[in-house]
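User: Please check token order:
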Amino acid sequence: MRKFFLAITFGAFILGQPRAALAAGSIDSIATRAAAAVAPSQQALLVVAAPLITDQVAPHGDDLALRLATILAGKLGGAARAHPRVASLATARAAAGHSAGLVFVSAQIEKGELRATVDLYPVVANTWDRVRVTAPAPRAHGFASAPIDAEIRTFLPVVTLEQAQVHKAHHDETEVLAAACGDLDGDGGMEIALVSRARVAVGHVRGKIGEEKFTVDKFANWSALAPRVATPLREPIGGAAFDYSTLYVGTTDRGGVALKGNLDTFATLVGIPVSGAGMVACAKVDPNSSSFSGKLSACTLPPPNATHFRIGPRPAPDPRPERFDAAAVASVVDKSGVGHGAFASRDLDGKLVVVLENASRTFDDAGAQVAVGDLDQDGVAEIVTSRNTTDDEIDIWSYDGTTTRERKKIPAPDGVSALAICPPEANGVPALIAVVGSEVWIVR
């Protein structure tokens, strides 16, 4: 029996291997990899979905399982077809009848992911043989997973962003410049990374309600990660992003580096990573203007003849500033499973320019912290900024390329020093991380 274990992650680049800048929808991605596991062919395969198993309320869970089976049948070839109802394996074997084979799909929602196990079984056509012969083992087996996105969310309860709660935890890091969250050690749980001028710290928020604290599980001093740059900026800028169990971090004091689970440097970046949701990109430092300049690029030099980094169609003329001091990127998947690139950057006058596909929008008085992503998984990008005012706050807007809608304001009188959008985890919902003074805020 052939075995395939396929884990899907979203982002723009694996080191040295540029990937598509825009993520496909999770259902389509899982189906594509599952089809590869069971060897697509023109045979008349029957695809049957088991009832969905889930760790959260899923009023249309079986419809989601059937949707996955239908997409998978399409990936397998024109002769494959999906069974119209969910079924047990025993029922699926009987339904397969005279088909060339049975593809049985078991889908599960757990810890913010849709996970699918796919088995290809031979079919025993004779009814008597099905009774007296031990059920045959699968000929091929595959596993694929992907985060919950807007398409999957259509089968789950709606997320009301306006009702999001703020959970606060104390931290002991000094002068935090950037934050990010992701799964660095591959255990399926989210970790928070805080980047300061002194070190990179990775940990979790732990403790009783009202007494939560950011506890550091591992850290690395910048003195061990990278030498000081020849010309640091007057005011340091930091960046951080997770992708493919890799942590990208940087400061304008030290430059950018890529870290694995032990927080050892294994690659030097071409710039400073920017806040990213489903994508990774780097900005190049311009010491003359004490800011970034040019366009975002891949964080590592791609091999010859590699596909160039892109975020999607750009408006003409391109409104993005040539010099900027904050930026964020995201791949936002709509309800039909199509990915759209979103980009935000703040010019040196405090104007935030947001580009979504071929549309753009300018926000005035944005602060130096910005994040982009889909916080309520409705297929529309959220723009999160601090404020360029005396009384700081966190502003959350939705922008669909045509209209802008204010969603939530959160006062932050101690000042916001970092923002990041986390992938889905608890209850399958993304979270916003904000570093406010000596606290880490989780908005979910």
The helical segments are 26-37, 61-76, 89-96, 127-132, 150-153, 222-225. Residues 1-21 have pLDDT under 50 and may be disordered. Residues 314 and 358 are 5 Å apart (CA to CA).
